[in-house]
UniProtKB/TrEMBL annotation:
UniProt organism field: Bionectria ochroleuca
Keyword Signal: yes
UniProt cross-references to InterPro entries, sorted A to Z: AB_hydrolase_fold, Lipase_secreted
Extent of the signal sequence: 1-20
Keywords: Signal
Lineage top rank: taxon: Eukaryota
Protein name: Serine aminopeptidase S33 domain-containing protein
TM region(s), chain numbering: none
Amino acid sequence: MFTFFGVLISVVSTLAYVTAAECLQPHDNTWNSSFTLTEDQINSLGLSNETAHNLEVVIRFEQTNWATGSVINDPFYMDLPANATTAPAGSLLKLEAFTNTSTYTIAPSLALSRSIYQSKTLNGTIVPVSAYILWPYHALGGAKAAPLVSWGHGTAGLVAESLAGYAVVATDYAGLGVPFYPYGSRITHQYVASPAGGNDILYAAQAARSAFPDQLTEEFVVYEHSQGGGTAWAAAQQQIELQIPGYLGTIAGSPVTNTTMLVKTTGQALAMIIWPDMNIAEMLTTRGQALLTLVEEIQGCSVAVNTALSGTLEADPTAALMKDGFVDSYWASSFANLTTVGGQHFVGPMLVFHGTNDTILPEALTALSFKQTCASFPERELRYVVAQGVDHVATSYATQQIWLKWLEDRFISKNKGGGHAARSTEEFGASSCTIETIGDDTVRPLDNYQSALNWHLSYAPNGLL
Ligand SMILES: *[C@@H]1O[C@H](CO)[C@@H](O)[C@H](O)[C@H]1NC(C)=O
Ligand SMILES: *[C@@H]1O[C@H](CO)[C@@H](O)[C@H](O)[C@H]1NC(C)=O
Ligand SMILES: *[C@@H]1O[C@H](CO)[C@@H](O)[C@H](O)[C@H]1NC(C)=O
Ligand SMILES: *[C@@H]1O[C@H](CO)[C@@H](O)[C@H](O)[C@H]1NC(C)=O
Ligand SMILES: *[C@@H]1O[C@H](CO)[C@@H](O)[C@H](O)[C@H]1NC(C)=O
Ligand SMILES: *[C@@H]1O[C@H](CO)[C@@H](O)[C@H](O)[C@H]1NC(C)=O
Ligand SMILES: *[C@@H]1O[C@H](CO)[C@@H](O)[C@H](O)[C@H]1NC(C)=O
Ligand SMILES: *[C@@H]1O[C@H](CO)[C@@H](O)[C@H](O)[C@H]1NC(C)=O
C-alpha cells in the first residue's frame, strides 16, 4: 500500500510558491476562491470526475485559508532588504515584531511575529528563509524571557501551540515562505534534505534571538516531528560545526533517516523528487512527470497533492510514476549519502521517539539509526522512546508528557538524563544511550485510542462564546 503523506508535501514544497504558512492558514466561512481545473489538466492524468471535483474543493479551501493571500502577493515575503545578497547565515534580514493575527488561526493568548533570516541550502548557498514566532502570555516558570524552542513544522501548528509557556520560532524552511532569491531565481525547497532543514532550524533560533534579545532566552531546544523529521537529528549533527550559542539539545520525533532505505521499505517512490539538481526525466516516468506538472500548476498543499496522487493511482493502478531502478541510481545514492542521519557525531542530549504503528515512516528504520549511533557514540546522551501501537502523527501526542518534561528539564532543572524510567539496554552497556517502550500499560486498551489526526483547525471569524 502506498502512503504518500510525507512525500506529497515534498512534491508541493518543491514546486510551488506556496508557503507552509499558507497551507496552514485559516479560512473564512465562505469560499474565497473559484478555482477550477482545465479539461487538459483533468485529461492529462485521466482523473475521474469525482477526483477532479474533490481537487477543486481542496484548492478552494486552501486558497481561502491564506491569511494574507499568496506569498507572491505579500510584500513581506517578496521585498527583501539589499543585504539579503550578502548577509551571513544566522543573521536577521527583516522583522515584523507585531503581526496582526486577526486572519490567522492561532490559539487565544498567543502573539505572533514574522521574520526573514539567512540560512544555507544543502551545498552552503545562502538563502533567505521566513519564520514566525509564537509568543506565550506567561513564560514557563514566570521568567522574563520566554524559553525558546526552534520548531520544524509538521502537518499543522498544533503541537507548537501546545508548547505552553515557551516561545516557538517556527521556520517555514527554505523555499516554502520566501519564494525567490534576492537576484530573482526561484528557491527550491530541499525536502528531506535533512542538513538543509537543519540549517534552517538552527539559524532560525539564532536570528530570533538577535531580534528579541530580552524577550527570548539565549538557550533553545530544537524540536521537529513528522514529515522531513530527520531535520532535527541533522541539526544535532550540524551543531558540531555550527556551534550556535545556547543550544540545549534536540527532540527528533518520528524522523526520516535514510531516504533510500525508506523508499525500499515503503515504496514511497516519489520521496526523492526533492533532490535539488535532479533531472526529473531521469527519475519519473511520463505519467509521474504529468502528475508533477499538474501539482506545479495548481500550487496545492499536501491534501491537494494527496488527492491528485490517489486519483492518478486510481485512474491507472498499474502505471508506475517512478522509473525502475531509480532507487539504486547514482542520484539516489548520493542523496542518501548527503542526507542520512544517524551513526554520526551529534551534540546531545537528544530525545528521539517513534510509534510502532507508523504507516508513513517505519519505526524499524529509526531503531536502526539509533543502534548505529549508540554503537559508534555510546558516550552521547541519546534517549529513544518507542510508542507501541501508535501511528505517525499520533506519536507526538502519545509522547507529549515525556517530551514536555524533557524540554522543561533542559531549561529549568537542567536535569540531564536522570529521573525517567528508562532502562539501558544491555547492548549499549553503561552508555548514555537509553531505550524505553511505552504503551504496555495504557489507561484503556490500545485499540480504543483514536489513531490519526482526522480534522483541521479552521478560522471562525467572530469567535465563539
Ligand atoms: C464527467 O463530466 C463530464 C462533463 O461534465 C461528463 O461529460 C462525463 O459524462 C462525466 N463522466 C462521468 C464518468 O461521470
Ligand atoms: C479574498 O481573496 C482576495 C485575493 O487573494 C483578497 O484580496 C481578499 O481580501 C480575500 N477576501 C477575504 C474575505 O478573505
Ligand atoms: C539588513 O537590512 C535590514 C534593512 O535595512 C536591517 O533591518 C537588518 O538589520 C540588516 N541585517 C543585517 C544582518 O545586516
Ligand atoms: C488587526 O486587524 C483588524 C482587522 O483589520 C483590526 O480591526 C484590528 O484593530 C487590528 N488589531 C490591532 C491590534 O492592530
Ligand atoms: C548550490 O545549490 C543551489 C541551490 O540550493 C544552486 O542554485 C547552486 O547552483 C548550487 N551551487 C553549486 C556550486 O553546486
Ligand atoms: C555513497 O557512499 C557509499 C559508502 O561510502 C559509497 O560506496 C558510494 O559510492 C556513495 N555514493 C555516491 C553516489 O557517491
Ligand atoms: C541508506 O540505505 C541504503 C539501503 O539500505 C544503504 O545501502 C545505504 O548504505 C544507506 N546510506 C547511508 C548513508 O547510510
Ligand atoms: C498496530 O499494527 C498491528 C499490525 O498491523 C495491528 O495488529 C494492531 O492492531 C495495531 N495497533 C493499533 C493500536 O492500532
